[in-house]
# Entry
Amino acid sequence: MIVVEELTKRYGPTVAVDGLSFTVRPGCVTGFLGPNGAGKSTTMRMILGLDRPSSGRALVDGRAYDTLDRPLRTVGAMLEGRSAHPGRRARHHLRYLARSNGIPDARVEEVLELVGLAGDARRRAGGFSLGMAQRLALAAALLGDPPILLLDEPVNGLDPEGVHWLRQLLRGYAAKGRTVLISSHLMAETALTADRLVVVNRGRLVADATVAEFVAGAPSLEAAFLQAVAR
Amino acid sequence: MSAFAAEWLKIRTLRSTAWTPALTVVAGGGLAYLVGLSMRRAEPEHFDAMFATFYSLSLAQLALVVFAVLAVGGEYGSGTIRPTLAAVPRRGRYYLAKLAAVAGCAAAVSVLTVAAAWVAGQAGLGPRHTALTAGGVPGTVAAALLYLVLIALFAAGVAQLLRGSTAALAVLLPLLFLGSQGLGNVPVLRKVTQFLPDQAGAAALHFFGNPDGPGYDRAFGPWGGIAIMALWTAAALAGGYVTLRRRDA
# Structure
């Protein structure tokens, strides 16, 4: 469960996130939608304690993220862009994350296998394609087998096979009663993967509903989304 | 402890942070031999066995500074700081773990470099070599050991303060190369530059003459110099902590 309460982030005069409140429930995949610059990534970074909120708070399983002792066992996160040092081998990137949270090295091999990077574990992350870098970031998110997954644009750069694999994985996670939040700007993909939606525009909440409720009356999720953010 | 294990593994798994410590030892030893050789022929009034032994550290320290900067600042250039802080969200804990890993490595490098400089320096000095038990020698050796650890931690603090390797090296390399050593030779500027971190500490290593000798013109003695350097280091580390706490990752 992720609870966001009156979360606000200002950068000087710019308000990136403006009094945002929503709850991400366990047992379903929640899509986090919004145009570029709507504040999705900033919100996710605040949930993870990476960015400090100007006001408001975010709780994961009832606690502020930065009070968690071994957070990778509670929340698996994947943020935008490359996050592994280009000079470090994929296996070592996962190993230092594992060590920091008391996760055994054997689990590193498991997640490498799971995301299909077992054969590339000795390669340096700098030589990875975008899709491989995404798989490595996903492996990092899955490392602690966490009950909550927080993924920022996870399908970016994945090939169709990878997109299908990820969708099955996330559906499986939700079916086991876990909490899954994925941001995306791909409407068709979100319609296939998500049960619920949190839609934001210019830092404010536009909708917090099931996909069916949100789309109701519109020809497609895309049409409903464009209509919602045009207001 | 687990955060330290992670930081230690990070240092070992990058080529840059694995090679720069080795380079420090090689430069410290190799150059000490050459300085010792040239000091062999010095006039008695210019002869200083400690200068000959440890002057090589002025060059060797550059590799160690690059090591510390890459270990801390490299987190930012590569974006690794985000998964790192997501895994260890208590920033004080992360900072302590990082500094302990850098300091531990710097301490080991310091011991090896000072030992290499000692052995090579005495070999270069040949018949004019000195003994570890000679007057003033143990103190100078202790100062050399401290000097390298302090300069590494100072560099680590600056890299965290500026949140990146490039900015930190742009400040530190001119400071160590030109500002301090170049401008430090201009008598008028020396009144100020003698208090710069490396210059203050280097006074204890006989870079500006024997602190007990007649030509020594600094405002502080060898341990005063090390203390000034320690204050700079503490300030840089504190500044780094404040930025780490306050700024978004």
In short: The helical segments of chain A are 40-47, 90-100, 105-114, 130-142, 160-175, 187-193, 211-215, 221-230.
